[in-house]
Specification:
By secondary structure, the chain is an alpha/beta fold. The chain has 5 helices and 8 strands.
Length: 165
Amino acid sequence: MASNTLTTVLWFDRGEGRKAAEFYARTFPDSRVGSGTDSPADNPSTPAGEEITVEFTLCGQPFMALNGGPNFKPNESVSFMILTDDQQETDRLWNAIVENGGQESMCGWCKDRWGYSWQITPRRLMELNAEGGERGKRAFQAMMSMKKIDIAALEAAADGIPADA
């Protein structure tokens, strides 16, 4: 990882960084877990000899998990947007996060068990929103009422078909 200029570091409670990296590697394409580093000395968050960092790649991007302790918690001010190609991929990623101790939120957002927010976003949603006009407005309004995004329902809304039709 040393050859990269920029690596995003995610803060985890003690011992959780590798668990998260392994989950992400199992769940998302082009993802893998790299090496870990043990703390060379005792510090406020990690005793000497315990893993303090784990390198991993998430969707082709370099990350590092820092087992920093319970002091800092993730929040919605930073999220990960994953663009999906179809409903099957949307369902798979959403369900993997939520069913692994995560929680649902609105508009395609969910939170993993470590507190990080994910936007599981079908490319079709982005296309419909970019159309603008009444179709874009109707698709956007439909999205605002959803938790997990339903592409067929977005299409129907864009076409002006009532949800209960």
